[in-house]
């Protein structure tokens, strides 16, 4: 489903399956702990990367089972859902605008100075807009292309229309909202011996917010004493001997 119609499916540039499997495993562990509290019995929590990705495919399987629909790639938009796309601003950067619900679309038209679009037969309701996505995207794209991204977002925010910038990671790190929420956090990194920026803790808990001890990246051999000495019971003298012999 990724990519553009007629093109090859691109590889996602993030390890999504790894993260999802970890999240589902944590969810399963909590459910298993609750059952243990109730029944006194434990159980195996089994998650897989492929299955974790499958679980977030929304209605693709029912669409196929009920209607024989095989959803294909749709680029930056959702087919039949309009307007919900990214549009290039005057400075070349991109802004996402989502106004596919009828009342929100009317607000978008008014904010663009074209209220008549809301009653135009091509765009007057959800189904009509879905059938005329290309034409509608062109109209909105022309409006956005004459304005700076800040103006677009401010105008639409005032009108009650969902919009936002497509940020680079450099812009994400400087984002005041993310900073205020603690989502750009310091992680102590042993390899470079300083704090490095990384994501904050999600979810945010009001009474017991999470903290970050370190970046999770260690120097080679950093935990040798802890593992060989603490976990495996080797003495300090044995560890020194192993180091001298090049084992550690």
TrEMBL record:
Protein name as it appears in the record? CAIB/BAIF family protein
Give me the ranges of the annotated region Disordered. Answer: 200-223
Q: Which domain of life is it from?
A: Bacteria
GO molecular function, a single term: CoA-transferase activity
Per UniProt, which keywords does this protein have? Transferase
The transmembrane residues are: none
Q: What is the lineage of its organism?
A: Bacteria, Bacillati, Actinomycetota, Actinomycetes, Mycobacteriales
List the InterPro entries hit by this protein, alphabetically.
CoA-transferase_III_domain, CoA-Trfase_fam_III, CoA-Trfase_III_dom3_sf, CoA-Trfase_III_dom_1_sf
